[in-house]
Amino acid sequence: MSSEYVVHIDVDEAYAAEVDPAAIERLVTHVLRGEGVAAPAEVSIWITGAEEVQRLNRDYRGVDAPTDVLSFGAEEGTAPFVTAPDQPRVLGDLAISYPHVVRQAEEYGHSRQRELSYLITHGLLHLLGYDHEQPEQARQMRAREETLLGALGIRRDVEA
Questions:
Q1: At 89, is the secondary structure helix, strand, or coil?
Q2: Which of 5, 78, 111, 123 gives the lowest tally of CB atoms within 10 Å of its CB?
Q3: What's the pLDDT score for residue 81?
Q4: Residue 39, Cα to own-chain centre: how many angstroms?
Q5: Which of these, 157, 135, 158, 130, lies nearest to 145 by C-alpha position?
């Protein structure tokens, strides 16, 4: 566990052999530092199946459709999550569909680790307020994702 950031990682047993929690923690720490997030801060990541992510999408967003990553920001909305002064800032939760990781990695021709890293980075940026609803927002978010991943040597054209 990072001394600066608290990263809770839960991987469904079906995908545990393919996921490296230590690599995820390093990535999360890199992204949060890169975005200037003051420590301590806390984020939770759940890597699960497509059906579970679709259920979350339906139950919490009202969208009954599969998706690759969902972000649930603790600081969003009219009643953001409140923490005690001596506790880490709670950023929120990510849910990632590992079957989407596998399928999209094959579709884009890169490694599963690269795709998982991309989805985690994308989700973290959403927790930090980035969005991609408008073309300019999408361009900025994509550029930030590629900069953060590129700094770790995780690029689209390189197997990670």
A1: strand
A2: 78
A3: 64
A4: 18
A5: 130
Q: What is the DSSP letter of 75?
A: T
Calpha distance 46→54 (Å, rounded): 13
| Number of neighbours of residue 21 by Cβ within 10 angstroms | 15
- Look up residue 88 and give its two tokens: 């880490």
Q: What is the pLDDT at residue 140?
A: 96
Residues 129, 115: Cα–Cα separation, whole Å:
21
Nearest by Cα to 130 from 103, 91, 82: 91
Instruction: Say which residue the tokens 């001596």 belong to.
Output: 86
Cα 35 to chain center, whole Å? 14
Joined tokens for residue 148: 């953060």
Cα gap 123→61, rounded to integer Å? 15
**Local structure of 24: helix, strand or coil:** helix
Q: Render pLDDT for 140-154 as a digit per residue (tens, 0 to 9).
A: 999 999 999 999 999
Residue that has been written with the tokens 């690029």 in this structure? 155
